[in-house]
User: What shape does this take?
Amino acid sequence: MNPCKSHGQKVLIDVDLPGSKKAESAGPLLSLIIPTLNEAENIPALVARISRTLSTAHEIIFADDASADGTADVAEGLRDEFPQVRVLRRTEHPGLSAAVLDGFRAARGRYLGVMDADLQHDQSILPQLVRALTTHDVAVASRYTPKGGTLGWSFVRELQSRVAGFLSRWALGIDIKDPLSGYFVLRRSAFEAVATDVKPRGWKILLEILAALPGARVAEVPFTFRARHAGESKLNHRVALTWLRQLRELRRERLQRSGDRRRSVAQLSDARSTTEVVA
Ligand SMILES: Nc1nc2c(ncn2[C@@H]2O[C@H](COP(=O)(O)OP(=O)(O)O)[C@@H](O)[C@H]2O)c(=O)[nH]1
Ligand SMILES: [Mg+2]
Assistant: This one.
């Protein structure tokens, strides 16, 4: 273990490579958390695709908010064929970020990941994301790297997304190209170092994690964001407003922290995250 300090928070960088004996012996390498709200039609195909793609030991944890369409039952039904599937039936504190955090807490893997249920997130880059964690703390599936993209979006939708990305970078003081991605993996040790700082505000849990890990080494892996397979998007104006509030609070907290830092003569480093595109 090689403890790195960033902004007074300890980030433990462990060096076991995926596939090594030690890595495999302690449970699955990767715990993939999939938050779900009415995704019953999507998850059989999703689980089959993930299982075909990942050769490393993994578990798939559905964090479901009492979906009316029986998503949790459908997921349970997959366990005979795919024993790596687990289901969290959530009854309190509904919400995407809260569901992801519950999934992280239930996870047994050394790496934690988040992916949407609707097949918009290309599972074929999962091995690349996992590999990136041998040298980085966080690996983000990115739509806005040169080889990434979005399929079937209107000009206005793409513009909204890019403006939202720009505002997020500004609020957090980071230069990650796709800070609003809902598809990412990170080392459990990195999450555990900041778990108490990560709040389940709104939808954008990656923003919370990046804000809490200002010295993190972040890799971005390009992918093409596809059209939703079945069902409906839950993104709405309320979600957008919550995101704006989240940004305001994250920026205020960041400025507060940097004010505290300036006042502290003991502060030795002013770590900023380092970002690298891994194509
Ligand atoms: N547990 C949980 N999952 C949610 C909630 N809202 C959305 N999701 C899931 O989060 C993922 C992203 O939502 P989606 O509607 O696809 O958003 P979009 O891709 O921005 O249109 C999907 O897997 C949804 O089922 C929620 O309130 N609770
Ligand atoms: Mg979606």
Observations:
- The chain has nine helices and twelve strands.
- Residues 1-24, 265-270 have pLDDT under 50 and may be disordered.
- Residues 2-277 form a domain with the Spore Coat Polysaccharide Biosynthesis Protein SpsA; Chain A fold (CATH 3.90.550.10).
